[in-house]
Amino acid sequence: MKRVFSGVQPTGNIHLGNYLGALRQFVELQNNHECLYCIVDQHAITVNQDPKELREHILDVAALYLAIGVDPKRSIVFVQSDVPAHTELSWILTCNSYTGELYRMTQFKSKSHNKESAPAGLLMYPVLMAADILLYDTDIVPVGNDQKQHIELCRNIATRINNTRKKTFVIPDGRFMKEGARVMALDDPTQKMSKSAPNIHSRISLLDEPNKIKKSIMKATTDSDGIIKFDIENKPGVSNLLNIYSVLSGESIADIEAKYEGKGYGDFKKDLVEITVSTLAPIKERYEEIRHSDELIEILKDGSERANAIADRTMKRVKDNFGLGLKK
Ligand code: TYM
User: Fold this and answer.
1) Which atom of ligand 1 is nearest to the CA of 138?
2) Residues with Cβ < 8 Å from 4, sequence gap 6 or more?
3) Fewer CB under 10 Å: which end of the chain, C or N?
């Protein structure tokens, strides 16, 4: 069975972009793959976090994984910092990375605002991500489009090491959805939907109340044409809403365009509100059931045990190939 690894940062406001780009793949893949789904808390501390909030957000993401349908009997669900080998491997990969390739990462450029005093953790972020993936001999990494460059870097580091010493790592492939891999902000369709944008109406969080969902969609930026048609370049707002509509309803964009021919944005948006609310309601319900349960903690403890067992085997091989420590 092929192995799958992915992670989400526990930084609050998990949104429709995270769901459509990455999370819904998690559920689909667990049927015929060996899956590990991680809450990447060490990535979250590349920017300042309140310790109490971070702990809560870790459990929020874990509960959301289960609420969307990740099954802990089939998939390993765990917290990154509960498996020390992630940072251990990260150092070994750091010694095989070039500063130039790290400075070229677009996420680093945008998060550091090109300041010289940017936190070094932001620069090293993709190396830790590579460690997450390579530690489990991962074949497939389901993510949104914004992670493409990071996956490419991971592949490059792994290939470099395989070519210069014994074959050490499995080379992973990213897995991206055709629709939903890049959900845009509702208030500005030139920006991707994000957890941290100050305007709460820029995103739909998976746990939003129906009224908030309605407000955000009804306010969403469109244009003055009044025509429901997919055209990313000239109609980015409408195209983004069409994408969301299509993925959530399972209807093709062409069918949706035909359905709303001659109708206005108001009708289209009202229906999109309904589809979104009815998709998210069962997720929210399941989330509320599990979020404060002992079961959740047990699932994470069991997950970290299973993840540590795989990680320890990889680290033995890696250390042998690098000549680190005493032979065991
Ligand atoms: P994070 O927490 O920012 O996002 C979680 C997942 O959601 C996807 N995503 C989106 N997809 C579509 N449209 C959007 N607007 C959108 N915004 C976010 C992301 O691509 C991601 O798949 N670096 C990762 C976390 C990570 C990771 C890993 C992922 C750390 N180690 C190893 C895979 C494998 C991140 O920042 O995700």
Assistant:
1) 34
2) 26, 29, 30, 33, 34, 35, 36, 138, 139, 140, 141, 142
3) C
